[in-house]
């Protein structure tokens, strides 16, 4: 794991956005379309704000979430709504959103329709992950019903996930799909998440799903 510590969040967010923009730009020089896979939740909004104003050929960028909560877009818990509000605006409005939600009652019913476009976006060019204090990443939660499958080599690209700590049913890219990324960044803030990350390094992937990504990731942390 490459751990990069910053003195404050603003410096970290600018540096991270700059790195991601550089990686997307480099990929666009050699590929017709590139994919950028991003987390939801409370942490990435400020990075999205910076990236949305960055000048690059967004019309050739496919943006997709790591995971989505199975709630309507009108819900404040919708990761898709966050993306539309904070990333897919300004310069980045030209990017193509690959959806992870459909207006059907369960993720299982949504999966078949969502899967083809997500599979077409693989391998991922740039992956940004978040992490909860329970060491989940994407919707790979400790104790989740399909966690073993989600972490396995035989995993489908997308799967439904339910977990005690998740709040609502989820849909998530599997570890196998996420690990296709050429470049992986993990964004975490605060002492509690730093302690959780240090703990994750001592646990198994089943106990601490984020561990599945640490070997190949750069972790960006600020207090
Ligand atoms: O539920 C989720 O949580 C994680 C971490 O979110 P945060 O609020 O602690 O930043 C996030 O990475 C994931 O995409 C999201 O669905």
TrEMBL record:
Q: What is its EC number?
A: 3.1.1.31
Q: Tell me where in this chain the Glucosamine/galactosamine-6-phosphate isomerase domain is found.
A: 8-221
Pathway assignment = Carbohydrate degradation; pentose phosphate pathway; D-ribulose 5-phosphate from D-glucose 6-phosphate (oxidative stage): step 2/3
Q: Which GO terms describe its molecular function?
A: 6-phosphogluconolactonase activity
- Return the CDD domains for the record: 6PGL (cd01400)
Which reaction(s) does the protein catalyse, per the Swiss-Prot or TrEMBL entry?
6-phospho-D-glucono-1,5-lactone + H2O = 6-phospho-D-gluconate + H(+)
A Pfam match = Glucosamine_iso
Membrane-traversing stretches:
none
Gene3D superfamilies, per database record: 3.40.50.1360
Q: Which domain of life is it from?
A: Bacteria
- Which InterPro entries would you find in this protein's record? 6-phosphogluconolactonase_DevB (IPR005900), 6PGL (IPR039104), Glc/Gal-6P_isomerase (IPR006148), NagB/RpiA_transferase-like (IPR037171)
Positions in coiled-coil regions: none
GO biological process entries: carbohydrate metabolic process; pentose-phosphate shunt
Job of this protein: Hydrolysis of 6-phosphogluconolactone to 6-phosphogluconate.
What the entry lists under NCBIfam families is as follows: pgl
**Record's family?**
Belongs to the glucosamine/galactosamine-6-phosphate isomerase family. 6-phosphogluconolactonase subfamily.
Q: Which PANTHER family match?
A: 6-PHOSPHOGLUCONOLACTONASE
The protein's name:
6-phosphogluconolactonase
Give the species this sequence originates from.
Celeribacter ethanolicus
